[in-house]
Design brief:
- The chain folds into 3 domains: 105 residues, no CATH class; 118 residues, no CATH class; 73 residues, Winged helix-like DNA-binding domain superfamily/Winged helix DNA-binding domain (Arc Repressor Mutant, subunit A, Orthogonal Bundle).
- It contains 15 helices and 11 strands.
- Strand 7 and strand 8 form a beta hairpin.
- The chain is an alpha/beta fold.
- It has a 4-stranded mixed β-sheet, with helices on one face. It has a 4-stranded mixed β-sheet with strand order 2-6-8-7.
- GO terms for molecular function: DNA binding; DNA-binding transcription factor activity.
- Keywords: DNA-binding, Transcription, Transcription regulation.
- This is Winged helix-turn-helix transcriptional regulator.
- InterPro entries: ArsR-like_HTH (IPR011991), HTH_ArsR_DNA-bd_dom (IPR001845), Metal_resp_trans_reg (IPR051011), WH-like_DNA-bd_sf (IPR036388), WH_DNA-bd_sf (IPR036390).
């Protein structure tokens, strides 16, 4: 359970990151690859990432000896260079305390100790490792990540305009609840309780971390909530499409069309309109896809919204929507 306490000032200071942050997305991707988040559907992607990472990126593993990265790595730079400069500007006291936190009583490698000693070679090692990992993991799909971020930004803004901040926040995590200034996000691990105390909150979608929210909480800074978004599978630069005729023979032409349309959320009515069928027929197709694990349905009041799952995206063989 993640529990975030808002004051009135915090609610006024909620903002959505206008652009994706390369370093945050990279950290989410590497965490997913190493921690094996995402289950078997992520296995091909994970295998490609781990096989293709060059040796120059190996030092990044030293920064997470127990899966707990130091907080000073969490920055919102618009580019890799900007992000690294923000990391490099971290005060030596925070660098030292965070490295001591993640290593505990275990001796750190020499180059890690060089970071809080302001050793230029150590910081150059970190920058080279991050850049190499970015070029391998994210650069081929960065334009897709940017498109997905724009679509998520638009969806959030429209929800705020039509239904208010509470609906927009809880819409990021189905099953979560905002009540009396406390946002409860069930199922998040590890359990955390965070009081913002006027610092505000930045919302940042990630398209490489399906396992739940990542809350970056550094004293005297706005907290940053990185949450899973997108179609449910890591973006690809050119995932081969499944043969249309073969998939239509298995699912039926209309049901395959429905599965492809559900790359974006649809109500039963909007799905029926797009398919040129009745509401009852559209509801039947959505129910069949849901029973097969290829779609999910979320009820809000009297309306329901359908969207395909990661399995559905894999079967559809379509590239994630570009917004």
């Amino acid at each position: 359970m993640l529990r975030i306490h808002f004051t009135a000032a915090d609610l006024a200071r909620i903002r959505f990151a206008p652009r994706p942050a390369p370093l945050q997305e990279l950290h989410a991707a590497l965490t997913t690859a190493v921690a094996r988040h995402g289950g078997p559907l992520f296995a091909p992607w994970r295998g490609r990432v781990l096989r293709s990472l060059p040796a120059v990126a190996d030092p990044l593993a030293d920064l997470v000896p127990a899966g707990r990265p130091p907080a000073f790595l969490d920055v919102l730079g618009d580019t890799m260079a900007d992000g690294f400069e923000q990391i490099r500007a971290t005060g030596p006291g925070l660098v030292r305390s965070e490295l001591e936190r993640v290593y505990g009583a275990v001796p750190a490698p020499r180059w890690i100790r060089g970071l809080h000693a302001a050793d230029k070679t150590a910081w150059h090692t970190l920058r080279r490792a991050q850049q190499a990992a970015y070029e391998t993991v994210l650069a081929p799909v960065w334009s897709v990540v940017q498109d997905l971020h724009r679509a998520e930004f638009t969806r959030y803004a429209l929800t705020v305009a039509e239904h208010g901040v509470a609906a927009a926040l809880t819409g990021l995590a189905p099953g979560s609840l905002l009540h009396e200034g406390v946002w409860d996000w069930p199922g998040a691990a590890p359990e955390r309780e965070v009081r913002l105390d006027g610092r505000g909150l930045v919302l940042l979608p990630t398209f490489h971390h399906p396992a739940g929210p990542l809350l970056h909480d550094i004293q005297d800074r706005p907290a940053v909530l990185t949450y899973p978004a997108g179609p449910g599978l890591p973006p690809t630069a050119g995932r081969p499409a499944a043969p249309a005729e073969a998939m239509a023979a298995v699912l039926g032409r209309t049901r395959l069309d429905a599965l492809r349309l559900l790359a974006e959320p649809h109500t039963t009515t909007s799905l029926a309109r797009a398919l040129h069928v009745s509401n009852a027929t559209a509801s039947s197709h959505a129910a069949a896809l849901r029973s097969a694990g290829m779609a999910t349905t979320i009820r809000t009041g009297r309306s329901v919204t359908h969207r395909r799952t990661a399995l559905g995206a894999l079967i559809a063989g379509a590239r994630p929507p570009s917004g």
